[in-house]
Amino acid sequence: VANRTENPHGKSNTEILVVDTLGSEPVRLTNNPGADGRADWSPDGRRIVFYSKRDGRLGLYLMNPDGSEVTWLTAARSGSWSPDGRRIAFDAPACAMVDPLALEDEERCRATGLAADKGDVAIFLINPDGTELKRVWPLEGEEGRMSSPDGRLSGLMHRPLYPVWSPDGTTLAFHGPSPFFARGPSWQDEIDRISRYFFFGTEDQMSPADSAIWEEWAVPWEVHTMTVDTTGANARDVTFGVGWAGHPEWAVAGARRRR
Predict the structure, then answer these.
(1) β-pair type (250-252, 236-237)
(2) Most exposed residue of 86, 120, 245, 258, measured as fewest CB within 10 angstroms of its CB?
(3) What is the reported pLDDT for 14?
(4) How many helices (H) and strands (E) would you count in the chain?
């Protein structure tokens, strides 16, 4: 089991340790001044993906279960192995795929033209050797559109976070701000129009009439659990109407895999 430890004095340097389920003495796998965390084992137990801020850049790294052979993978803050161990899913701003140092630097991010503060955060897939980078959702140049479970509404959202694979490897669940759904289908076009201020402008650009529509007809902004096929299709808010419901986990043969 890969775990992490926090500095008890609040200084942010986390490390990754391993301990067996009987509670053996923990073995430290990482040891550097940069924070390490969010470790995820490959299905065959031969590699661990984790985030780290080392060598001057934050991103995903791979290492052996004994902490050896640490290698850079990509600019992101969390990664999740596919059930067959062939792919890793992660979330990141698109600007970090162009310039890895832009992951933490707003100025560098804006310079790429793919600024994260405009909603351009996406879910990607990548091979463990760093090849075949694929953007899954939202697809490049498309809005992040999510449907309600009954298919009646289709709202906008941004910043999909912490993707987790389904046991069959066909679907990703993730955590993020709920889509901008309307309280009824007839108002969805108006809510879409107004909600674009949050992606491409600022809330203070809303007119008094827009604010009144927003107040009366927009479903409250919450954190929800979403799912999307690994092809980028069938994006759904599966906790629509539940309230705050993030950080998903999948049931696996009577057990649960947690993120």
Answers:
(1) unpaired
(2) 258
(3) 87
(4) 4, 19
Q: Is the pLDDT of residue 140 over 90?
A: no
- The answer to whether the beta carbons of residues 128 and 137 sit under 8 Å apart is no
Question: What CA–CA distances, in Å, run from 149 to 160, 237, 238, 252, 259?
Answer: 18, 6, 6, 22, 23
Give the residues across from 126 on adjacent strands.
88
Q: What is the pLDDT of residue 236?
A: 94
DSSP 20-82: -TT-PPPEE---SSS-EEEEEE-TTSS-EEEEEEETTEEEEEEE-TTS-S-EEEES-S-EEE-
Q: What does the block give as tokens for 171?
A: 């679907």
pLDDT tens figures, 193-207: 988 887 766 667 888
Cα–Cα distance for residue pair 196/188, rounded to 1 Å: 12
CA–CA gap between residue 13 and residue 137 (Å, rounded): 32
Task: State the pLDDT at residue 123.
Answer: 96
Confidence class for position 8, pLDDT limits 50, 70, 90: very low
Q: How many CA atoms lie within 13 A of 49 on its CB side?
A: 28
In the three-class reduction of DSSP (H, G, I as helix; E, B as strand; rest coil), residue 187 is classed as helix
**Distance (Å, rounded) from C-alpha 50 to C-alpha 171?**
21
Bridge partners, 243 (sequence order)? none
Q: Is 216 exposed, middle or buried (0-12, 13-18, 19+ CB in 10 A)?
A: exposed
Asked whether 196 and 212 are in contact (CB, 8 A), the reply is no
Mean pLDDT of the region 105-121: 79
Residue 230 has pLDDT above 70, yes or no: yes
CB 173 within 8 A of CB 227: yes
